[in-house]
Design a protein that fits this description.
- By secondary structure, the chain is α/β, with parallel strands linked by helices.
- The chain contains 13 helices and 18 strands.
- The strands form three sheets. The chain has an eight-stranded mixed sheet. Strands 8-9-7-12-13-16-14-15 form an eight-stranded mixed sheet. A two-stranded antiparallel sheet has the order 10-11.
- Strand 8, helix 7 and strand 9 form a beta-alpha-beta unit.
- The longest helix has 22 residues.
- The chain is globular.
């Protein structure tokens, strides 16, 4: 039986999440007789004593066979014949993590990536996505309030705080509801209207963002209304949800097909710039890789700015791909310093809310701003797989490795070797 270890998170100072919460640890210890060690931490949202009371040992993880984490792990921790489970951020060949992957492989370790734990239809089974959306929208509304204040426009959103400053998600929601009541009674300042908030995507991230947006009074409009510039003025806030078929067209005029786009994105082009001119706040919640068209280009921002037509004030880039779908996402920001202002006129940026241009919120560990609720959800999806992981014989060859298909599909490296589905990473490492 493999001993399970839960390591402390050290990539970011305010990373407070855990992959397994004490209640689920207690279940595994009592009902499945598993041995679980938890590395001590003073910042983790669940304290050492909570894990100890749940039946875990508080100690180093030297004798653990499987080490669970959340974010990337330091290169110097990997040991031969041990299995590491975390969000590795290597499946796109990300250059900033190739050194880590090389070290893990040279150590003869095994890597399982949560991102690739999927069902037969390719749907992710273990994720924080909704909580990225929830925290991302809270932060975007907070950034909106702060930005308009800097522009000299006092507004209801200025009383909102950054997500991590609330003790619970419900506390944040309660304050947003109160802001909504204020908007209902007094509306928004004339200088802010018409006020359009757009959210891209329909996955877990976007659903979380839209859940927060539903707490404030707004009128939802169609893509055609947005494209034509017909923005109703009878509601203080107008919202629109932009989906792939709204802005992607087949180059030969064929009907948009999502799976075909995923397989052959080169056959499609983006017309999203027809939708952008009326938007004040843009919240990005789509999956993106380099094969796909960008949503907001620096060129478009500069053109709008030069012509004095730029209405866009705030971008909440929850997707957070640097120079990715939002090209002016210059960096992934930290919770302690979450926003910068991008100036399209000279292609520069400065941290904070001051400056000429567009505010970008691009925190890449957004779920950690809601650490307790996010961890509880994540743990509930991971827990069913823990007993099987504990029983697995990772010394077996990969083709003989007995794991559920969902987990086996997520094994990127086995005993130091890339598994068949991930051989393509050889060109990056």
């Amino acid at each position: 039986m493999n001993k399970i270890g839960i390591r402390h998170e050290d990539k970011y100072a305010l990373e407070r999440r855990v992959p397994l919460v004490p209640n689920d640890v207690n279940h595994h210890v009592k009902d499945h007789f598993l041995k679980i060690s938890v590395e001590p931490s003073d910042k983790r949202v669940f304290g050492n004593e909570e894990f100890q009371e749940a039946g875990a040992e508080i100690s180093t993880l030297d004798d653990c066979d499987i080490v669970l984490g959340v974010k990337e792990m330091p290169e110097n921790i990997f040991k031969p014949d041990k299995t590491y489970v975390f969000f590795s951020h290597v499946i796109k060949g990300q250059s900033y993590n190739m050194s880590m992957l090389r070290r893990l492989m040279s150590a003869g370790s095994t890597l399982i990536d949560y991102e690739k734990i999927i069902d037969r239809e390719g749907r992710r089974l273990i994720f924080f996505g909704k909580y990225a959306g929830l925290a991302g929208m809270i932060n975007t509304l907070w950034a909106t309030g702060m930005r308009y204040e800097k522009l000299g426009i006092h507004n209801p959103f200025s009383s909102l705080k950054q997500a991590y400053r609330y003790n619970t998600l419900e506390q944040a929601k309660s304050e947003i509801r109160q802001i909504g009541q204020t908007i209902n009674k007094k509306g928004l300042p004339p200088e802010m209207q018409p006020f359009v908030i757009a959210v891209t995507g329909d996955g877990n991230v976007s659903q979380g963002a839209l859940e927060i947006l539903e707490l404030i009074p707004s009128k939802h409009i169609s893509i055609n209304e947005l494209k034509s510039g017909i923005i109703p003025l009878d509601e203080p806030i107008v919202t629109v949800n932009i989906l792939p078929h709204d802005y992607l067209t087949h180059k030969n005029g064929k009907t948009f097909d999502l799976q075909h786009y995923i397989d052959q994105p080169e056959d499609y082009e983006s017309v999203i710039e027809e939708l952008l001119p009326e938007i004040n706040v843009f919240v990005n919640g789509i999956y993106w890789d380099e094969r796909y068209p960008k949503l907001i280009k620096k060129r478009w921002l500069k053109e709008q700015k030069d012509e004095n037509k730029l209405r866009l004030q705030v971008i909440g880039d929850i997707t957070c791909d640097v120079h990715g779908s939002v090209e002016c996402t210059e960096k992934a920001t930290e919770i302690e310093d979450p926003v910068f202002v991008y100036n399209p006129s000279n292609d520069s940026y400065g941290m904070g809310f001051d400056g000429d241009g567009v505010v970008v919120m691009a925190v890449d560990i957004l779920p950690s701003e809601l650490p307790r609720e996010a961890s509880e959800h994540f743990s509930s999806t991971l827990s069913p797989f823990i007993p099987t992981l504990a029983k697995a014989d990772f010394s077996a060859d990969f083709d003989q490795l007995s794991l559920p298909d969902e987990i086996k599909r997520a094994v990127i490296v086995h005993k130091g070797k890339l598994t068949p589905d991930f051989k393509y990473l050889e060109e990056f490492v």
